[in-house]
Each structure stands twice: as structure tokens, then as C-alpha cells.
Design a protein that fits this description.
354 residues, alpha/beta, five-stranded mixed β-sheet, four-stranded antiparallel β-sheet, 10 helices, 36% helix, 17% strand
């Protein structure tokens, strides 16, 4: 993933927002603050908070996606070139899979929150390098799947990344919270966060005999959070963790096929991992002119009110979309089939009242 001669580093954080706030991304020169430009199509909550809290003057522009909700490298490259010509400093791209002073930043996500789309790392990595951007790969959800060789191709190009983040608490059998951040050059991170008042100075730190993690994060102290992840890795082992991921993806495949087998429903985004995005298709006699927004909201509300299963939602291409994620340790095939029965029954009731 990186040159062994470089000064790499790895830090265990609380959640994604801490990763964002921790990064050199926020070590910004006030003189260029007004010219910073961010590119975004899908934005995660913690990113919105981080930008709002730290960089209120940043301009955010939406970047075009493919029909599969991936960023389009050619369109992005053209937008970056135009902004450079306009005197702006492109420094941040929010896609799916931080920043030294005055350097632009590119943030790539593996597995978007809404639809688990994966952006083309290789192409975007080249754009980041050409624009002297910090290249961050955000694999909060889908990074766990990449422990399986057959899914590793989703992060092809990651060797160009300056930093990589994932959340083990999302899909790697580790209880909340467990957010991991790797940086290629730890000095960039340390320089943006380091503080060294007299009362914190000590011989070991001054002589670089220890890794002083106070300079890797916003808080001064921290709990021993990494122990739980170490226990998971030791107790389950590589093979069991891989089979755990594979089982969830196979169950999601089964659910996807069930959705496709019922003409009343449609899959709304390619299923890459264990998240299925789908909706109830508005019938021809449906009078609402909202692309089935109210219809699918009512379906989700009825399902969740029943207490039998719980579904979340998102909006893709202006359409209200239901999301079924397979990720619980005890989920079996019978649970997936039962969930589908609940969906079918509630849909029949809802359509019968139209």
C-alpha cells in the first residue's frame, strides 16, 4: 500500500468526524481560506459537521455522478481545472472509498452511506496527484469487506492514498466505537495537531523514544479503545472474519433476487456489498406526482411501526428509496426471507387501499 521507507502511522479514533477533524486537512492558511473549493455529491453527516465547524468559508460544489452513483473522473478533472483557472484552490472531494498547508485535498469513499457505491480510485488518485491534492480514501463501511481477496479489487489504486479510514464497528464484529485512520506520512498529521507546553514535556517524548499520540488527535488523553479490536482479531481470526463478511453478502444477494422476482418492486442501485436499495414501484393508477415518494414513505412507516423489522431510507435521483442492510452477527437466511414476507404483505395492504 505504501513505500516502507516512508514514515507511516496508524491511529485508532472514535468516529468518522474525529478522523476528519484530526487530519491535516484543517491546518489551513487563513490567507487562502476564502479560495478553498470542495467537490461533493454525497455527503456524510460527520463531514458536513466538520466543514461547518472548521471551514465556514469553503465553497461546496456538486460533482456529477454516473447512474450507479459513482463520481465521473473526466467531469471532475474539468471542474478542478476550471476552478484553478478562476483562482480557487480545489482541496476536497467527497466521493465514496487531509491537508498540509495550502495543499488541495481529495477524499474518496469506498461504499457510500446511501447506496454503497464505490468510486474509481485509480482514476481519481491520478487526478489528486496531478492537482497536488491530499488523497484520502474513506472506506468506513466497505473497508471491512476488503479483508476478502475477492473484494480487494474495490480498493485498487489505494497505494496512491495519503490516508485511509474505516470503521470496524460497522461490519467487523467490533462494538461501537472503533474508527481507524492510517496515514502515509504521519508527520503531516502531527504537524497539524502538535502542541507542546512545558508541563507536557518529558525526556521520552523529547528524544522521540515513544510515539506521543496526543499529537495524533484532538483530545489530550484517550481510553484503551484498541483492546477490543485486538481481541476480535485474535478470537475470530482471518478466516472466520472473511466468512462472516461473505455470509452477509450472500444473504444480501438472496434478498436482491427476491426483490427482482416481484414486479411491484425495483432495485434502485447496484448491490456491491450487503446493502440493497429498492423501492415499491408506483402503480399506473397512482395519482401522486412525487415519483412514489409518499408511497414508499408510507410503506417504510408501516413496516417500522409493525415492530417486526426495521428499514432505513435514502433519496437517490430524487426518489425515496428503502434500504435493507445485512450486518447483524446473528442474521440467517430465515430472517431475510421473513423480512421479505413482511415487505410483501405491507405492500399488498398499502396498494389495496389506493
Amino acid at each position: 500500500m505504501a513505500d516502507p521507507e516512508q514514515d507511516h502511522g496508524f491511529v485508532y479514533n472514535e468516529q468518522g468526524q474525529v478522523e476528519i477533524l484530526n487530519s491535516p486537512f484543517f491546518d489551513v492558511n487563513p490567507e487562502v481560506d476564502q479560495t478553498l473549493e470542495g467537490y461533493i455529491e454525497r455527503i456524510v453527516f460527520c463531514l458536513a459537521e466538520a466543514i461547518d465547524e472548521q471551514l465556514s468559508s469553503v465553497q461546496l460544489l456538486k460533482a456529477e455522478q454516473t447512474s450507479s452513483y459513482e463520481l465521473v473522473p473526466e467531469v471532475l478533472a474539468e471542474a478542478i481545472s476550471n476552478d484553478f483557472s478562476s483562482g480557487l484552490i480545489p482541496f476536497f472531494l467527497c466521493a465514496t472509498v487531509r491537508n498540509t498547508i495550502s495543499s488541495p485535498l481529495l477524499n474518496i469513499l469506498v461504499g457510500t452511506t446511501s447506496s454503497a457505491a464505490v468510486d474509481p480510485l485509480c482514476a481519481l488518485g491520478k487526478i489528486a496527484k496531478a492537482g497536488d491534492m491530499w488523497f484520502h480514501v474513506d472506506a468506513a463501511y466497505a473497508g471491512s469487506a476488503c479483508i476478502c481477496p475477492e473484494f480487494r479489487h474495490h480498493i485498487d489504486g489505494v497505494e496512491e492514498a495519503d490516508s485511509f479510514g474505516m470503521n470496524a464497528h460497522k461490519w467487523l464484529l467490533t462494538n461501537f466505537d472503533c474508527s481507524l485512520l492510517w496515514v502515509k506520512d504521519r508527520n503531516a498529521l502531527i504537524q497539524s495537531l502538535s502542541t507542546n507546553p512545558e508541563f507536557l514535556k518529558n525526556k521520552a517524548s523529547q528524544e522521540n523514544a515513544v510515539v506521543d499520540f496526543k499529537d495524533w488527535q484532538i483530545p489530550l488523553g484517550r481510553r484503551f479503545r484498541s483492546l477490543k479490536l485486538w481481541m476480535v482479531l485474535r478470537m475470530y481470526g482471518q478466516e472466520n472474519l472473511q466468512n462472516y463478511i461473505r455470509n452477509h453478502i450472500n444473504l444480501a444477494k438472496q434478498f436482491e433476487q427476491l426483490v427482482k422476482s416481484d414486479s411491484r418492486f425495483e432495485v434502485m442501485a447496484p448491490r456491491t456489498f450487503s446493502l440493497v436499495c429498492f423501492r415499491l414501484v408506483p402503480p399506473p393508477n397512482h395519482q401522486d406526482k412525487d415519483n412514489g415518494y409518499k408511497l414508499n414513505y408510507s410503506l417504510m412507516d408501516a413496516i417500522n411501526t409493525s415492530g417486526k423489522i426495521f428499514l432505513s431510507h435514502t433519496v437517490l435521483s430524487g426518489k425515496f428509496v428503502l434500504r435493507l442492510a445485512v450486518g447483524a452477527p446473528l442474521t440467517e437466511e430465515k430472517h431475510v426471507k421473513a423480512a421479505w414476507k413482511v415487505l410483501q404483505n405491507q405492500a399488498s395492504t398499502l396498494l389495496g387501499n389506493i
